[in-house]
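User: Second chain of the day. Same drill as before.
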Amino acid sequence: MANIFDLTSLSGKITSAYIVLVISTTVLGIIAISDLLFLGRQLAEGEVVSNLKDEVLEMRRDEKNLFLYSDINALSRADEHAEFAQNILQDNDKTLSSIVNESDPATLVKMVAAYREKLGQWNVTAVSEKETVQEEIRALGHQIYLSVETLSSKERQMLETAVSESRWILLLTILLIVISILIVGRQLKRVVVNPLKQLESRLMPIARGHFKHLQPPSNDREFVTFTDAFNRMLKELEIRQKRMLQSEKLASLGILASGVAHELNNPLSNISSSCQLLLEELTEADPAQLNAWLKQIDSETERGRNIVRTLLDFGSQRVFKKEQLNLLGIINETQIIIGKSLREYAADLSINIPTELVLHADKQRIQQLFINLIQNALHASGQGAHLRISAILTDRSVSMIPEGAEVAGNLNCSTDYDGQFVEILVSDDGPGIPGENLSKIFDPFFTTSEPGRGIGLGLFITQEIVREHDGCIAIASTPGKGTQVIVLFPEKGVNRA
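Assistant: Same format as last time:
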């Protein structure tokens, strides 16, 4: 029982608040019931007085019939009603004493007894004295009626007062019950609802993947126990995640090493072959052949250097800085940077981007994204390629991600982010991507280009850039009809809590 009222626990506070509410409601209910019982007693008293008044009125009516119409039977009826009135007075003397003075009911009983006595003398009184007895009976009847009327008036006033007081007591009881409920509800909201809302807000960043230990929203034992258990679980998850990341890093390192070895092996093999031929034919080969072998060595050396440069760019750690960028300006700058490649492929690049469209992003990384996408489209489309870049500000509900598209990124093109998106579309009229290759398109070192045209890191780096900006990227392609790359970025960025 001690723990039930423990105010350091949530259950103790709820139980205490509930008990306080029950006790206050019970007390107020008892007050209301007591008032209703009092009102019932007042009604019972009123009924007694009403019955008494009715008997007195009937008594006076029969008295009038006796004296005015000489109705002999009226005498017995008047006496009968007087007897009933006398019995009511005797049986309810305590009740009537609470309405008037304690002596008044007894006095009224004596008056009724005297009235009955005079009625009994009527038949045996001489004719000469009947008028005197008649006047005495009428006087006593009138006095009895006035006394009963006074009693009835006081009882009616008391009943009206009781009803008025009961009405106010009932209203006050209802008001106090409502106030008690509001006070208890407010306290429960303070100790239960508000901490739960705080807990919910603190859990949201964790749900988004930003692991941060919880602080209990209150000192209640249940919240403290929950947060401790949750933090232990979170710590265990962090340990497991680190182990998983370590395993993934080792696996990625193996893939990277394998890819690098494969990519570097080709130019090194060519360089080795050319060097062997040079050594073997150095004195006998004609200058033109020697020159061709030397050019091949130089070309393969440059190829190896480009592979190493790409890997260095991939592995470098640059400062990530988001800022407000004019998207059309970024595209125009990127077009200048890769202008040589566009000319080599005799490519046509059309741009349809609103001048006022702004993107919250890291400039260097976004430029790298567009360079990768354009170069990838050029390599896939070949000579005379037609490329299109467009962008709009759109709501997620109307963003068109083609069915069957390969999707990557933090948002998976469906997120709790409630704002608008900058939707970027990069498309070409190339041969498209076969269905069996579409699922591998974001894998590192996966490429369908000719040897020496790329090492398969362009789209992998691109989707990493998109992921850094809390966006998503989708690639849809139909063989023979070209390829579409759809990129979605939150308009104002997502807070990293």
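The beta strands are 323-326, 348-352, 358-361, 386-394, 406-409, 421-428, 472-478, 482-490.

User: Great, on to the next one.
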